Amino acid sequence: xxxxxxxxxxxxxxxxxxxxxxxxxxxxxxxxxxxxxxxxxxxxxxxxxxxxxxxxxxxxxxxxxxxxxxxxxxxxxxxxxxxxxxxxxxxxxxxxxxxxxxxxxxxxxxxxxxxxxxxxxxxxxxxxxxxxxxxxxxxxxxxxxxxxxxxxxxxxxxxxxxxxxxxxxxxxxxxxxxxxxxxxxxxxxxxxxxxxxxxxxxxxxxxxxxxxxxxxxxxxxxxxxxxxxxx
Length: 231
Prior knowledge:
Layout: H1 19-25, H2 27-31, H3 34-47, E1 59-64, E2 80-86, E3 100-101, E4 118-124, H4 133-143, E5 144-155, H5 160-168, H6 170-176, H7 183-187, H8 192-202, E6 207-213, E7 224-230
Parallel strand pairs: 1-2, 1-4, 2-3, 4-5
Antiparallel strand pairs: 5-7, 6-7
């Protein structure tokens, strides 16, 4: 029995919750447009502003979960000689994109590379989506050489600011694209405190520097946190 008459049922009932379709059809456009796009630029720039990264040249870099290749444009081109990008849903065409792409799907917890084969690993909002975050962190550590750097973006899930921003920003864009605005909660599987604890435990013997946005606020009033780990 339904508590709604046909014309009273929530509009979201007719909207898609297909996560694969959302990332294939809508995510890139939403992430790069409007206010959300401006904030995304701030996030990418903050990931590249850290003393661990200064003076690094000729590096071999791996970006896991590179999406459609947004972040590479913010990385100093003189800092790398090879920039490899992977994703669970790689772009259909990479001819016009920077760097080198692995054309087949790559799961973040099983990257197909040898031990200590990269100077730097970059992950933009990937850990919150993984099935096995503990295994994923161990795998990322495995492929980065001693002296290398891992750069992580962690959303401050579920902070007051992050939830408020979702109401004002991409909510309507998701609806317009035909997707239930709550789809983000289906794909962000872990909260900030859980993921941050995993990072601190896995890299307890390494140098870790963090920077939140906005700065000087507790995590539950913040939007994201950038974590830089010196291996």
